[in-house]
Amino acid sequence: MAEDVRRFARLRTLCEGALELPEEQRSDWIARMCEGDEELIADVDELLRRIDEGGTLAELFNGPRR
Amino acid sequence: MVCLPEMKEPTDITRLLERVAGGDPEAWDELLPRLYTTLHEIAHRLMRDQSRGHTLQTTALVHEAFLKMAGGDQRWETRRHFERVAARAMRAVLVDYARARNAQKRGEGWERVMLTEEVAAVTGPKLDVLALHDALDKLHELDPETAEVAELRCFGGLEHGDIARVTGRSKRTVERAWRFARSWLEREMEQTDG
């Protein structure tokens, strides 16, 4: 569980950090930060894609775009 | 039906909540209709967003949420606490209804809850309340603060600014937390679907 919590925190930090960067710099930055952890890179990429595309919860609860 | 007075300033409600917490019965009598109004607004927002197949009676849902809240030993010292309690109660009510509906589908003889209010014509994306409930539980284990933001958003019906106010965080922090939480929750809900 402690490991899950640490990994979640890392995933969140990476996603939020990536979103602060210009889009073209993101993948390099993520690769550098993940230090070859391919699973983590894939997780970050998927969550960023979902943030970008939106989904059921976004449609239901996001309201007007800010 | 209670005859509802005009809503006053939020600070007024905070004072009432403090007086209720201090055991003042008159404050409770004043608070009751406002609590009802607030819960009804929450329920209405949620009902508006429910899937078409979700047959609920708004008034019954609100009433049940209220009983859950008043039945516990919650001390509502502040509006902040109140909003959290309301969201938690709403979540419990919707999960109960979703479970009842599932049981009914399996032929376990639940009485059908008839829709009498504004939900009949609602279309839109389908929300699996139970999947969201389970995903939120998991998120809570990993990151309670992010889970709280998501719970207030999904079940409390609060906007980012309101969530920032009731949790004492900046709006920017709340927006970031929600952005991440919703994508994580959506993935989690899809994975649970199989």
Number of E-state strands of chain A: 0
Order of helices and strands of chain A: HHHH
Compute the number of strand runs of chain B.
Answer: 0
Query: What is the end-to-end distance of chain A?
Result: 35 Å
C-alpha Rg of chain B (nearest Å): 17 Å
- Tell me the count of domains of chain A: 1
Helix count of chain A equals: 4
Low-pLDDT stretches of chain A: none
Strand content of chain B: under 5%
Overall average residue pLDDT of chain A: 88
Strand content of chain A: under 5%
Mean pLDDT value of chain B: 67
Largest sheet data of chain A: none
How many DSSP helices of chain B? 8
Largest sheet features of chain B: none
Estimated structural class of chain B:
mainly alpha
Uncertain segments of chain B: 51-59, 72-77, 108-125
**Largest protein interface?**
A-B, 24 and 25 residues
Morphology call of chain B: globular
Measure the end-to-end span of chain B.
Answer: 44 Å
Tally the structural domains of chain B. Answer: 2
3D architecture notes:
The complex is a heterodimer of chains A (66) and B (194). With 66 residues, chain A is mainly α. Chain A has one domain. In chain A, 80% of the residues lie in helices and 0% in strands. Chain A is built from four helices and no strands. The mean pLDDT of chain A is 88. By secondary structure, chain B is mainly α. Helix content of chain B is 69%, strand content 0%. Chain B contains eight helices and no strands. The longest helix of chain B has 27 residues. About 17% of the residues of chain B have low confidence. The chains are: A mainly alpha (66), B mainly alpha (194). At the A-B interface, helix 1, helix 3 and helix 4 of A face helix 5, helix 6 and helix 8 of B.
Task: Give a quick precis of the structure.
The complex is a heterodimer of chains A (66) and B (194). Chain A is mainly α and 66 residues long.
Describe the secondary structure blueprint for this structure.
The complex is a heterodimer of chains A (66) and B (194).
Chain A: H1 2-20, H2 23-34, H3 38-53, H4 56-61
Helix pairs in contact in A: 1-3, 2-3
Chain B: H1 10-21, H2 25-48, H3 58-71, H4 79-105, H5 129-142, H6 144-154, H7 160-167, H8 171-193
